[in-house]
């Protein structure tokens, strides 16, 4: 989880990812951010995030992203 938080902090240093639970719903992350995150997560965690995984539920919080990463590993 620490590695994921570091990746997120690099992408958006102004956001408190440990407490924000509506990253997509509140417009904190846009589609471009999500595409960049998908590429970075695929590379860093050696996973393949398919189009079916790119949903608001999977990207609304660091916890939901971490759950997705663990499920795909």
Structure description:
This protein has 73 residues and is mainly alpha-helical. The chain contains four helices and no strands. The longest helix is centred in the middle third of the chain and has 15 residues, at 31-45. The protein is globular, with a radius of gyration of 11 Å. It starts with a helix and ends with a helix.
- Total of helices: 4
Contiguous low-pLDDT stretches (5 residues minimum) are none
> How are helices and strands ordered from N to C?
HHHH
Would you tell me the structural class of the helices and strands? mainly alpha
How many beta-strand runs? 0
User: Based on CA inertia axes, which overall geometry fits?
Assistant: globular
The first-to-last residue Cα distance is 13 Å
> Over the alpha carbons, how many angstroms does the gyration radius reach?
11 Å
Fraction of residues in helices?
Answer: 40-55%
| Proportion of beta-strand residues | under 5%
Mean pLDDT across residues = 97
Profile the largest sheet.
none
Sequence-ordered SSE layout with sheet pairings:
Elements: H1 2-11, H2 31-45, H3 56-59, H4 62-72
Helix pairs in contact: 1-2
Key words describing this protein structure:
73 residues; mainly alpha; 0% strand; globular
Summarize the structure.
Helices cover 55% and strands 0% of the residues.
């Amino acid at each position: 989880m620490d590695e994921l938080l570091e990746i997120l902090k690099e992408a958006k240093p102004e956001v408190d990812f440990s407490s924000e639970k509506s990253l997509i719903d509140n417009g904190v992350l846009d589609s471009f951010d999500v595409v960049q995150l998908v590429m970075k997560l695929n590379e860093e965690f050696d996973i393949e995030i398919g189009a079916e995984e790119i949903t608001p539920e999977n990207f609304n919080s660091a916890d939901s992203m971490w759950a997705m990463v663990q499920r795909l590993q």
